[in-house]
Amino acid sequence: MHLNVGDGHRLYYEIHGRSDGPTAVVLHGGPGGGMQRSHLKFFDLTKWRVLLFDQRGCGRSTPFLSLHKNTTWDLVEDIEKLRCMMDLDKWTVFGGSWGSTLALAYCSRHQDHVAALVLRGVYLAEKWENDWLTTETGAARLFPDRWVRLTRLAKGKTGTAMTKDYIRMMRSKNRSTRKAAAAAWYAWESAISTLRPERDTTSARVGEAISVLECHYFSHRCWIPSGSLIKAAKRIPKRIPVYIVQGRYDLVCPPASAYAIHQAVPHSKLKMTIAGHAGSEPETAAALLAATNALAR
User: CATH code for 2-125+225-295?
Assistant: First the structure.
């Protein structure tokens, strides 16, 4: 099903689980990762009703790869439109990686409609986090062989200059240039996403969406002022349970950001797992299911 949210965008969404159960909205990663039905395993569907959807520009939402009116705050209002469509007063907001950023941003503006937050692999859109991924002093120190592959296309550029170069290549009229840039960008993130190497079955189409939209969002610092998500998190009341699940060895979204949110929200519960970034890693998946089970009691 699709919801017309304006600005020429139509969001694809699905509803799963128990029709009269508490409702959770799942905010996928990326930006650009698209909804994954595998995320349903984080919920007992005999208790929960779960809404999955594709954010602007990706998955089955249309138009595909559109950057028009595609900002963090556009997505926040899309989430609110989905809540109104479902005629809900409050719902649980569940987000991993970029989805955690979006969950915190949504809560900062629509706290009255948040029943609970479940965050995984926290990303706060701070400069140091982007530098960690795009300069030689971050994850590159641990994956130098993979880093070389990423910088090769950008002719050795790093940081903001590299991101801009990748944006230029991904907007090229030459299809092979666009595809090569998207593949290289996604290959870097995929390589550092799990504690133990796993075969990546992500389609080229999804990989392209992640690459195009991540570069778009990174180049604008996600339209989130530095420190603003932490500041907003300090205002989260005790009535809103906050569960944070963080891979101890997450190289995409290092644990410092999850810990900062935990410190900002004293009543939050933080679970560090023996895992990397991916929500599919066994210990992380089990912790997420435990969190939603606790909320459904």
Answer: 3.40.50.1820
Cβ atoms of residues 81 and 66 within 8 Å? no
Which residues participate in catalysis according to the annotation?
97, 250, 277
Neighbours of 76 (CB within 10 A): 17
| Span 200-223, pLDDT tens digits | 888 989 999 999 999 999 999 999
User: Which pair of tokens denotes residue 63?
Assistant: 């138009």
Report the pLDDT averaged over residues 236-252: 98
Domain positions in the chain: 2-125+225-295, 128-222
Q: pLDDT per residue over 228-240, tens digit each? A: 999 999 999 999 9
Q: Yes or no: say if 204 and 176 are a contact pair by the CB < 8 Å rule.
A: no
Whether the model clears a pTM of 0.90, i.e. scores above it, the answer is: yes
